[in-house]
Amino acid sequence: MKENNNNLAIIDFIKAIYNKKKFVALHEPRFLGNEKKYLSECIDSTFVSSAGKFVDEFEEKISKYTGAKYAVATVNGTCALHISLILAEVDKDSEVITQPLTFVATCNAISYCNAKPIFIDVDRDTMSLSPSALKSFLEKNTIIKNKKCINKKTKKIIKACIPTHSYGHPCRIDEIKKILKKYYIFLIEDAAESLGSLYKNKHTGTFGELGVISFNGNKIITSGGGGCIVTNNKLLAKKAKHLTTTAKVNHKWDFNHNMVGYNYRMPNLNAALLVAQLEKLDDFIASKRNLANIYETFFKDTDYNFFKEPKNSRSNYWLNSIILKDKTQRDKFLDETNSNGVMTRPTWILMNKLPMFKNAQCVYLINSNWLAERVVNIPSSVKL
Ligand SMILES: *Cc1c(COP(=O)(O)O)cnc(C)c1O
Description:
The protein is of the alpha/beta class. It has two domains: about 5-30 and about 280-350 and about 360-380, Aspartate Aminotransferase, domain 1 (Alpha-Beta Complex); about 35-280, 3-Layer(aba) Sandwich (Aspartate Aminotransferase, domain 2). It contains twelve helices and 17 strands. Bound molecules: pyridoxal-5'-phosphate (PLP). Pyridoxal-5'-phosphate binds near residues 77, 105 and 190. The site of pyridoxal-5'-phosphate has 14 residues, from helix 4 and helix 5.
């Protein structure tokens, strides 16, 4: 296919996939099951807020689904990250390693703890944190004292690391985990986008001490807004629950709180929607993997590369990506698709380029810079 015709052919193809003539969105939620039933049950019960059976039911079901022993539902993924960092004892004297290619929420949560991010490069085949870059950074730039990893440059303690499973594709989480363990660094997985994605047959988010999932409106399933923390650690789960529910001490009537807590609990109304969505998750994943297959075949005959799930993994293909030749070609593609009714988006602007994080320590971001100029997300809603 000649490059001139490329974009128009792609626009037609995507419109045909979704059977739309005018506009195809990047990612829309689908409500095809018991959503209305459970929502009206929830309203009829009057338990629409911070107590009710749907929250408990959701927590049980998501822990079964992911294989994590415990799950704590929250109002969104960002606050789940915030609580996770508090549980890792991240404070103003700490630093947190993450990748520059992620959604801003990852870094905002680090800032809520008054800590500083350190940006380490990603691998091109996962778009997520590179274990070899991580290892080489830690070897050269840190020393270990009293089981704490000290950054030689800043003298601060590197307390935690948050790799993101970008666009649902699992990163090399087992290697990352192994490296972090050696350096006494707490692993929090940003699995906000990767519900249903497996690495070596184990659910993403369950490798780290804590994993965070989001149920925002654009994610694979949604509660309107919502998130959760998954963990195998009973004590951390208990603390997470306590902190997200105003640190209230259980009692028949006393309003007794033993520390500064947060009002981060998912309302029952959102959980009702989510329980219905969860029933459809396996169908959604099957549909998305089928769509990815269709895209993969189609893009073989174009100038663009379709991004395939990394080795050893089963991706939920939350958002499909293509990789263009360079920034010029990417900008032309974004312009032509968006002005012709097919919504596409570039990947995130790297976090180290944002004003709030521009002074953060960065380590050779070669792949991140390369991907930032070339990756475009294409429509990925579940097909009807
Ligand atoms: C969506 C998302 C979050 C935040 O989740 P919210 O529920 O929107 O607060 C965090 N990290 C990544 C990578 C995300 O995509």
